[in-house]
């Protein structure tokens, strides 16, 4: 198999690997809340630890992050749009809407990303890809309507969870459009995580308690697990974006939606629903259509 033929299979494998790891995050956050962690504190320390692990790995591989002024702006802007804001909303909303619903909200970014990429002429119009994204979006809308109609979660937190994909999509576009020239994927990932962590620090002025829970073995174990998850996800994240493009990358959220909801229902005992099942079927169909079309384009 030639390198060109291997490329789409590698991209799809990375897509499902990263999506599965991201799906685990929502459930770890729920477990962490039960162990005494405040969502924002758990997020800050997870980002800091994950970023430092990535920095060490990049350093050992000789791919040290650049520190020029444009690169520092890139770390902060990508950290704001892709890390700090969406994860703060996600982590904070899970205790109110559930890990399953929060995970399923991650399926929204593809449509927003694709529409932004079309508007900015970063992607060409593909009817098959657009159909796949619309099918996935239809599933996401079914999920949202089902949650709103159930009345078991505050509307403010439902809207907060639903806004997460908007920032993820903006982050996808920003990273692709302003990718520093000549920078490797691994050299950019630590800066984005550490930039996101840095941007969370001012929330301490709003009363957020960032004290770590080091006396509880379970709490420490969950934090270590989330640090490793962040390090693995974002190391692979940049590699996939460089390999397959922004719109394909945005499908990660759809995979995370399915795996996260499945774990929440199967292992954490959350209640499923018909709307969630129908949403999952639509999202899987949409992902497969987009992935198939992207594989065709890569082989052309």
UniProtKB/TrEMBL annotation:
Protein family (similarity comment): Belongs to the EamA transporter family.
Ranges for domain EamA: 11-144
Keywords: Membrane, Transmembrane, Transmembrane helix
Protein's name according to its UniProt entry: EamA domain-containing protein
A Pfam entry, by short name: EamA
InterPro entries xrefs: AA-Vitamin_Transporters, EamA_dom, EmrE-like
UniProt superkingdom: Bacteria
Provenance organism: Ectopseudomonas mendocina S5.2
PANTHER family, sorted: EAMA DOMAIN-CONTAINING PROTEIN, INNER MEMBRANE TRANSPORTER
Subcellular location per the Swiss-Prot or TrEMBL entry: Membrane
């Amino acid at each position: 198999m030639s390198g060109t033929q291997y490329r789409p299979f590698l991209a799809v494998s990375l897509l499902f690997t990263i999506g599965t790891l991201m799906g685990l995050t929502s459930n770890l956050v729920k477990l962490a809340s039960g162990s005494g962690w405040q969502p924002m504190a758990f997020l800050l320390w997870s980002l800091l630890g994950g970023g430092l692990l990535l920095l060490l790995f990049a350093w050992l591989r000789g791919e040290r992050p650049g520190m020029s002024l444009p690169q520092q702006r890139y770390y902060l802007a990508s950290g704001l749009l892709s890390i700090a804001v969406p994860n703060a909303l996600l982590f904070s909303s899970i205790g109110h809407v559930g890990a399953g619903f929060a995970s399923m909200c991650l399926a929204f970014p593809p449509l927003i990303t694709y529409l932004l990429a079309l508007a900015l002429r970063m992607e060409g119009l593909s009817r098959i890809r657009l159909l796949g994204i619309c099918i996935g979006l239809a599933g996401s809308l079914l999920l949202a309507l089902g949650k709103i109609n159930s009345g078991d979660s505050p509307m403010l937190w439902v809207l907060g969870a639903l806004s997460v994909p908007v920032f993820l999509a903006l982050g996808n576009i920003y990273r692709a459009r302003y990718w520093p020239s000549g920078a490797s994927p691994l050299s950019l990932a630590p800066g984005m995580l550490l930039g996101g962590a840095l941007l969370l620090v001012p929330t301490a002025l709003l009363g957020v308690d960032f004290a770590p829970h080091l006396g509880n073995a379970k709490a420490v174990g969950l934090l270590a697990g989330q640090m490793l998850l962040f390090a693995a996800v974002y190391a692979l994240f940049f590699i996939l974006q460089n390999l397959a493009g922004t719109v394909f990358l945005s499908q990660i959220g759809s995979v995370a939606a399915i795996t996260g909801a499945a774990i929440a229902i199967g292992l954490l005992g959350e209640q499923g629903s018909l709307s969630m099942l129908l949403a999952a079927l639509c999202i899987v169909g949409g992902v497969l259509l987009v992935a198939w079309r992207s594989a065709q384009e890569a082989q052309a």
